[in-house]
């Protein structure tokens, strides 16, 4: 062996021993379920385009779903390992299905109520006795329940909820089969485009922080138990994408619109961005550590316990594990 070749090989071997985590770690394939809405998948796609998953030796297979309910059903069935979703992550984990380990953002104004004034609904009071389409058990439903109660309307007695998948709920509203729809962005876009006479009666921002709804990630129970190392690497990739997003929103949104949301005009995507409340990874760490995130999750769990009659529910303090995140990002 030539001396130069030997020295080169020796140096490579020394580097591998010095950095075993980088040089020798195998790539883990993971199945990630998600909803295609900015508040849920923005950081995920930025991590993909910036090569952050690859840096963490992760090879995600992304599987899109229409609702968080479908996501958790798939994860409970074993077809995905982790998921990113909205308010539903305060539902199924409270039933013992999944562990929450990462928060994306707050659905500050992503949930909205739209009405048809020409169908007799111009104010909140006009909703009494009316049908409202939405997807039960989702972010939109949680917001609707909070908003109705705030205006003295009993969600169980004074209105009739028409439970539909969100695309169907929006279609029903546009066709005027119902006078009102509780939705989440970007489903407001077809409403604005096809129902110019429709009016947005309110959004979730009016009830923050009392009724804050957080988006985030959950893992299948067995995956959480056995692969916390993977969850930690998911968080590391997410942190880089999140902080880039928070620090460079215009650049990040232009990139996301070009690669992931080509059918959504950039002004509409910016509107979605401003409807969510984001924090840097360090700011999130403080909210993990002081119990704020746990409190927000529990508020939504309380809704599900009442609405879905969940018996022996698991509290957020048990189904949410902040320790993995706080191992990566110090408060």
Q: What do you see in this structure?
A:
- The protein is of the alpha/beta class.
- The longest helix has 20 residues, at 228-247.
- A 5-stranded mixed β-sheet has the order 2-1-3-10-4, sandwiched between helices.
- The chain contains 16 helices and 10 strands.
- Residues 1-23 have low confidence and may be disordered.
- The chain has helices spanning 3-18, 20-23, 38-49, 52-55, 68-76, 139-150, 166-174, 188-194, 221-226, 228-247, 249-259, 266-274, 281-289, 292-307, 316-319, 323-328, and strands at residues 28-35, 58-65, 82-85, 99-106, 111-115, 131-134, 160-163, 180-184, 199-203, 214-219.
- The chain is globular, with a radius of gyration of 22 Å.
- Belongs to the bacterial solute-binding protein SsuA/TauA family.
- It is found in: Periplasm.
Characteristic key phrases:
2 domains, single chain, ABC transporter substrate-binding protein, SsuA/THI5, 10 strands, D-Maltodextrin-Binding Protein, domain 2, 331 residues, TAT_signal, alpha/beta, 5-stranded mixed beta sheet, signal
Question: Topology, pairings included?
Answer:
Elements: H1 3-18, H2 20-23, E1 28-35, H3 38-49, H4 52-55, E2 58-65, H5 68-76, E3 82-85, E4 99-106, E5 111-115, E6 131-134, H6 139-150, E7 160-163, H7 166-174, E8 180-184, H8 188-194, E9 199-203, E10 214-219, H9 221-226, H10 228-247, H11 249-259, H12 266-274, H13 281-289, H14 292-307, H15 316-319, H16 323-328
Parallel strand pairs: 1-2, 1-3, 6-7, 6-8
Antiparallel strand pairs: 3-10, 4-10, 5-8, 5-9
